[in-house]
Design a protein that fits this description.
This protein is an alpha+beta fold. 29% of the residues lie in helices and 24% in strands. The chain has four helices and five strands. It has helices at residues 4-7, 27-35, 42-62, 113-120, and strands at residues 16-22, 70-77, 81-87, 123-127, 130-136. The chain has a five-stranded antiparallel beta sheet, with helices on one face. The longest helix is centred in the middle third of the chain and has 21 residues, at 42-62. The radius of gyration is 17 Å and the shape is globular. The N and C termini lie far apart (51 Å).
Length: 143
């Protein structure tokens, strides 16, 4: 008897992901599910999904992109570290994005995104095209 896995071997988990998604909140589910195709340890996956959701959500809400424009998500797993970059549009060097994670006032219903990123990511920041974060595979506690 032939096992189906002999004919159709399971796809190898990937170490790199490069997505272009519409600048809409409906894209968040697709981005989170796409992270599952990476060879990252399961204990990092939940945090990675939260972090990418926050950064893609920020791009959708605050970058000024129209719904027919795109956000690019690039994720790379080195075997030790996951790095994810979320690019929306080139930034004006004269007005860099806010990078401080200011804690919103208690009871605030919004404004928690970068605060959450600051607490979960091993490292994070901005570049000329958007935001990025890193998660270390050997970490014991959030950044």
């Amino acid at each position: 008897m032939v096992d189906a896995s002999d004919i159709f071997p399971a796809a190898e988990p990937s170490r790199r992901l490069d997505l272009r998604v519409k600048a809409s909140s409906e894209s968040l589910t697709h981005v989170r599910r796409s992270l599952e195709s990476l060879a990252i340890p399961p204990e990092l996956l939940d945090d990675a999904k939260v972090l990418v959701s926050e950064l893609v959500g920020n791009s959708v809400r605050h970058s000024g992109l129209r719904a027919d424009e795109f956000v690019r998500v690039i994720a790379e797993w080195s075997g030790v570290r996951l790095r994810v970059a979320v690019h929306d549009r080139p930034r004006d060097p004269a007005s860099p994005p806010v990078v401080g994670a200011i804690r919103p006032r208690p009871g605030a219903e919004s404004g928690w995104g970068l605060f959450i990123v600051d607490r979960l990511a091993s490292r994070w920041g901005t570049d000329s095209a958007g935001y990025w974060f890193e998660l270390d595979g050997d970490r014991r506690a959030p950044g």
